[in-house]
Amino acid sequence: MSLLHDIQTSLAQDGVDLSAILLKLRVLAARLGSQPLEEWIKHESEGYPPSVDVPSYRVTEAAYRGTFWGPFGAAINNAQIPPAVIDKYAGKHWTNFRIRQGIAEIDTLVKQSSDGEGTFTFDASNLILFLQGKIYEGHSCNGITASIPRVSLIQIQQAVRMRILDFTLELEKSVPSATEISFASSGLSKESDSAKATQIYQQIFYGDVASNVTAISSGQGSQISLSIGQGDKSALIESLAKAGISKADASQLAEIVASEKPTSKEEPLGKKAKEWLATNLRKAVDGTWKIPMGVAVNVLTEAVKKFHGL
Fold it and tell me: Do 242 and 215 meet the contact criterion of CB atoms below 8 Å apart?
């Protein structure tokens, strides 16, 4: 059985852990040469670090309750804290909670509660600092408990399953050679098929965002993915940094690109950007940039095109 069909079969079977399916998908992603897919699998398996934003299906509403002490022994226990108050004084990231745990941990949390109404708590002690004196006049906040519903974790499981299934089905249809990949095979023979696989991943997992994504050959059998919206300077910096250009240089170029117009539709680099490129391209040769010089030129040109909407 091919690796692709093995994954599809596992998805259709009851009782197969998602973590096991992700391991198979990680092998398939390596054979496909799709670095963005490999990165997604890594985060889903091991968890999302604070420096990486989570997909939309991992954002859920959180509920907060607090204990408040007042004068003469007065107390208000287990009082619900309005989300609007938390948004105002602490920020929306507290109410729109991002679940960063890996799939194995999420699977375990779901199994710990057999009923569909269960909830799971997380540490919200830092929230006390933001809300102190903001809830009940004359009462101090002495404790806050935070929870998310069990169903939110189940929805993450389902979202991951459906994305994997949709991806493998579309891959089977659009890249027939992918069905020949097995644990023993070396992968796709055509770079164009690898690029197509990455495009399918972007479309399935991020929808319309895929229109902002370009896959460029790294020259080493994989692709460099550029996801940059028009005028999005942060995305420009992040994409260049991921491609192997130093963060400082990427930031410097982004400032220059944002300050001038492109020479033409075919030539997106303005005068200052061209001067910057001529001065800094040697860094691809001496190893300061972790990207070959020829690939660096292509990446920089395509990234600036996308920034200008060309």
Answer: no
